[in-house]
């Protein structure tokens, strides 16, 4: 698996070992509905997680990306991002999507390239400190499926909850 590093990671991601992305991909593949999506990790820079999947696996009756596949990819990218930050902090926690909203802006007639990052105003340090102190924490995440010519085919906003395992 080829994994591209986009930029130097922020301090919170410095403790992420080289195998973390391999473990994340293995976890994705362990879920039968996700395994058939043929997704790959396209990059991670400590702030943004990018996933890729071929259009051929996600095409609808109009020849563009199936809306459910786009929603799934953005949910998975966001979940993976939060999970990577929890792991980098040395914590053992379950991560759940609490709620989400999606807007479909334009049909996507190309492979699915999704990028997830913390929502504006969200702070990883606060999220991790709260998880350490209280055993549970929330963070807002945003994701987009990119159009080949630029811009977004979809916009996704969500809140994720992490709960420390006992």
Automatic annotation (TrEMBL):
InterPro entries according to UniProt: HotDog_dom_sf, YiiD_C
All residue ranges annotated as the Thioesterase putative domain in the record: 28-163
One Pfam family recorded for the sequence: YiiD_C
Entry-linked NCBIfam families: yiiD_Cterm
UniProt name for this protein: Thioesterase domain-containing protein
Organism: Marilutibacter chinensis
């Amino acid at each position: 698996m080829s994994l591209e590093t986009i930029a130097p990671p922020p301090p919170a991601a410095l403790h992420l070992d080289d195998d973390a992305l391999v473990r994340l991909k293995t976890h994705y593949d362990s879920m039968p509905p996700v395994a058939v999506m043929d997704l790959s990790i396209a990059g991670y820079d400590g702030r943004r997680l990018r996933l890729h999947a071929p259009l051929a696996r996600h095409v609808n009756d109009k020849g563009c990306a199936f809306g459910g596949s786009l929603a799934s990819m953005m949910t998975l990218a966001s979940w993976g991002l939060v999970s990577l930050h929890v792991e980098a902090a040395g914590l053992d926690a379950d991560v759940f999507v609490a709620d989400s909203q999606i807007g479909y802006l334009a049909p996507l007639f190309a492979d699915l390239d999704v990028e997830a990052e913390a929502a504006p105003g969200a702070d990883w340090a606060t999220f991790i400190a709260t998880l350490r102190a209280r055993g549970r924490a929330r963070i807002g995440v945003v994701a987009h499926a990119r159009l080949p010519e630029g811009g977004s085919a979809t916009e996704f906003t969500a809140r994720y909850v992490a709960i420390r395992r006992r």
